Amino acid sequence: MEVQGFPAALEISANPLQGEKWNKSRRKSAHFEDSFPCEENSRLIYINDPVKTNDQYEFTGNEICTSKYTVITFLPKNLFIQFHRVAYLYFLAIAALNQLPPLAVFGRTVSLFPLLFVLFVTAIKDGYEDWRRHRSDRKENNREAYVFQSDRFQLKKWKKIRAGEVVKVYADETLPCDMVLLGTSDPTGIAYIQTMNLDGESNLKTRYARQETVVTLKEQQFSGLIKCEQPNRNIYEFAGNMDFNGQRIPLGQSNIVLRGCQLKNVDWAVGVVVYAGQETKAMLNSAVSPSKRSKLEGYMNRETLWLSVFLFIMCAVVALGMGLWLERHGHQLDTLPYYRRRYFTDGSNNKKYYKYYGIAMEVFFSFLSSVIVFQIMIPISLYITMELVRLGQSYFMIGDTRMYDKNSNSRFQCRSLNINEDLGQIRYVFSDKTGTLTENKMNFRRASVFGKDYGKISGPGSHMLQGVSIAVIGRRRWKLKSTINVDLELVALLHKNLADEERISAHEFFLTLAACNTVIPILWGNSSYANSEFLDEAETIDYQGESPDEQALVAAASAYGYTLIERTSGHIVVDVNGEELRLDVLGLHEFDSVRKRMSVVIRFPNSSVKVLVKGADSSMFSIIMKTTEKTDEGYRESLVGIRRATENHLLDYSSKGLRTLVVAGKDLTDSEFTEWQSRYEDASTSLHERATKLRHTAALIECNLNLLGATGIEDKLQDGVPEAIESLRQAGIKVWVLTGDKQETAISIGLSCKLLTPSMQQIIVNGTSEDECRRLLTDAKSKYGIKLVNFRNSCPRMKNLQNSYPDISSNAKTSDILMHEIEQTRSANDIVEFHEEGLMGSVDGPLALVIDGNSLVYILEKDLEQELFDLATSCRVVICCRVAPLQKAGIVDLIKSRTNDMTLAIGDGANDVSMIQMADVGVGISGQEGRQAVMAADFAMGQFRFLKRLLLVHGHWNYYRVGYLVLYNFYRNAVFVLMLFWFILSTAFSTTSALTDWSSVFYSVIYTSVPTIVVGILDKDLSHRTLLRYPKLYCSGHRHESYNLRLFWITMLDTFWQSLVLFYVPLFTYRNSSIDIWSLGSLWTIAVVVLVNVHLAMDIQQWVSITHIATWGSIIITYACMVILDSIPIFPNYWTIYHLAKSETYWLMIMLITIIALLPRFLCKVVRQLLWPSDIQIAREAEILGKFPNHLRSSQDQDSS
């Protein structure tokens, strides 16, 4: 998360939650848009009167249903859903054609077997899953809660609760519906809830009951009217008001508790139901994220189209041949055994037509019969195989202990099974900064107060007291959960009795840190603290909040003697150096992405009213009081000096990578307060455009503020980030950082994580208008000679460079030669990268682009996107600062929509969700900001450094495996079909099959499927150590080495040859023998299974025991099945295998077919590896020889990654 010092959840745009279609506006600046209904469209809830509330029967009950089926609807609905898959419709059409008498190529039952088998297995799986959903729904709906009935609270089942009823929930219980709080066991009306079941966040959230309802709770006289917005998915906002005892009370997000959350730290809470059942926000958000589609699968569909063309051509050839054959032998059709037109026998049928419908219809039937015979040319089973392989790959990725994070106790998660292979082709990584590259564990380091810098640790003479975990000032002691470095000089200033401006500014500075937030203090009682300087007893205090920044600031204020000890909806209590100070909270303007600041209006015990504000420097300095000519000269110089000093301190903090905030405040006059209070009450009770009205109201008091100071918070880099980024860069992956931090902070973090290097030339784009942005982009392109490059079509020189691998003989390479030639490969790849970046002029060093969110407002909304694209893709590094969530998604879409490159987005918080969903691959970090990013991502992990292993190892393996899997399945089915095709051409185009029906069905289902799946899950071309040691090997995915159109055509050519050998070698061998057709078919069945398995064995890179069992076991299983089938007397192939097995010719024939068919493939592989080895083959050779160039090793131990 990137917004400094404010709750992360408040920044999230409503768009991702609403699930609306993305359009052009998704790339726009994140303007705050309200979706609140008009007054006329609001929902009316009569408290404790459910009958009147639902008198129109428009509200749903509280019963939920997540199941899809009932006993009656299961069969038709499940079949309807299954037949949405085109593959199943293809199966159904083939089976239906085979039921027609003229087209009955296979037995009618046999033809239905594959389809029925798939439908039955899928139905069983779906039925079991839905039964579990029914069981879960039944358990959930029958839970009980206390509902106010007959003047007392009585148990009632959840499913019978209705809108308007008053419900009482006890500690640690789950909330049954969405309720507006009326009161809690705490006298102040505060409640703590855990939203883990809703948004995945484990930290406690604070909700309040309005004081007006809390004081009347004991009387148990529940009445009133709530007017609120209609049900919607936005779990971070709620707009409503309550008419209670003649008052109109505003209701907001802090007054509602949602279904699925748990009540914590209070004994009980009472609320009125506003949304129930399917209308609750939890149920409205229960829809899963849209699934993404693999890029390789898209390519696969292109090749499937080519196979469909081949299928059509083969069927057309057979049909045309049939017509010509019938025309040529027309005079013989009455006597031919297979094509006789009339009956031979005497009787009533004598001279009638027998299975003959004329040449035209026979041609048509022959075409359809051919489709049935050649049906597996379209590899329908490939889709099922790919799903099983991806499932197995995910199992091993999840079980990889090197991607387990001990700190967060989180392991790797695969939340999407459709895009495993895309991990091996990533070209762009878009990363959040805070919580993704950094730990998101904030530590207060520096403070600028009244123009003076505090917190420096310069050496022995510094005024810092490090490691303080207790608020040491005053009579009362507070033990903090975290340790804070305290500047003793600042402590001394706070304890001066002087009432000078510096002392007052310091006091108000820390008072703002303690008061201007949404953090909740939790007291834990006394605890011992052994230190000679302090007392032995201290009361432990912890802070719960939605933002780590706020928690760090409040803890820092406590360390300096300003301890927040109590918070309610109406007041806060701050222990100021041992004296409790009660402050009435008159209004709170929470952070939003437009204002980028937060303010609180408080009344002091002396009745004075102040507004305290903190926010980003970009939004704060514009509302700081400016000097005028009427201002006293000395005072004016003082203000200007303080402002300049603070700005310099902010620049210094940012250059050190610290997150910065500016703190300010002012006293409100009676007139200012009265005007603000009137506007605030109207805005906070409005149901229409409440957020806009509140922003306008805040502008009344957020002006002419007194600058109090600034803060610097440290967010350390995660372990292994610099090494991971360097490895990704060597792998040809560009890493872009999209952050909400200010520019100097982002640049500092970029340098510390080695994203930026001192040799890079930085291009800064900070435009304040469309014309200025256009000028900056044009000037940068002109200065560095950047021209428009068509990234969808590589230039010829780049293609040549991509193929410029070193020439290495597999048996004659020393480690020195190997080292030199890998360096040559690296140089070639560097040139490729240089050209891909579009740099056409001479540039002294690589480029880095730094652009801010304000510039992106004009660029992404105007016609400057192409200019930005040309410049950004010409830079090795891009850092976007001060960007809003939708701008992050816009940057991703900028690359995704203009190139064919694969994009990956990684983040940890709610403001990264839109970016993660926009990218081809989304990765969520299980961090401090909750689990919104994880829930929206395709994959999830605990640390950024694991991305290195995910892409370079698992990504490479998965892409290599799936690419080979697809090509092999095309080959396996095509060689079988072509063998049948040659047989039909040799049998007068009669669509007669020499193979039994069951052999044809079992070929893809049983005989050859298991080895494919095992190899797709377990095969490894290189070890993980080699892949991590040589990141450049990842570039094979960029070059599509494992799957491309050229490989497809080579595979088809090889398939054509193998099918000819498979068919004609036995035919030529047995040409003068008396062997029958079924014996020949039995030979072909065994031969094709042996051939495809040996073909697979030639390509397996890593043999393990299960690979041997699957590969050779499938051949044994094929023999076993054939023995069983040939032992059944009713089958025409009865006992054929027993006769064949006795013949030596049979066994020699299988061996001869295998050798002749695979010999060209073997020779081509040998020649290619000797003369044109790929970098993968070079690395395999080095891996086998154990001779690796030491200087190419990465600085980090690879195994620890």
Structure description:
This protein has 1201 residues and is an alpha+beta fold. Among the domains are: 161-286, Calcium-transporting ATPase, cytoplasmic transduction domain A, CATH 2.70.150; 380-394 and 956-1185, no CATH class; 412-436 and 718-786 and 844-942, Rossmann fold (3-Layer(aba) Sandwich); 445-455 and 476-525 and 538-716, Calcium-transporting ATPase, cytoplasmic domain N. The chain has 39 helices and 35 strands. The strands form six sheets. Strands 14-35-34-33-15-29-32-31-30 form a nine-stranded mixed beta sheet, with helices on both faces. The protein has a nine-stranded antiparallel beta sheet with strand order 17-16-28-27-26-25-24-23-22, with helices on both faces. Strand 20 (520-528) and strand 21 form a beta hairpin. The longest helix is centred in the C-terminal third of the chain and has 40 residues, at 946-985. The radius of gyration is 37 Å and the shape is elongated. The model is unreliable at 1-38, 527-536, 793-842 and 1189-1201 (pLDDT under 50).
Short descriptors:
nine-stranded antiparallel β-sheet; 39 helices; 1201 residues; 35 strands; alpha+beta; Rossmann fold; transmembrane helix
Number of strands: 35
The outline comes out as elongated
User: In terms of structural class, how would the helical and strand content be classed?
Assistant: alpha+beta
Number of helices: 39
Contiguous uncertain segments of 5+ residues: 1-38, 527-536, 793-842, 1189-1201
What is the oligomeric state here?
Answer: single chain
Major sheet: size, sense and barrel closure?
Answer: 9 strands, mixed
Overall mean confidence score, pLDDT: 80
- N-to-C span: 24 Å
Relative strand content: 15-25%
Order of strands across the widest beta sheet? 14-35-34-33-15-29-32-31-30
Radius of gyration: 37 Å
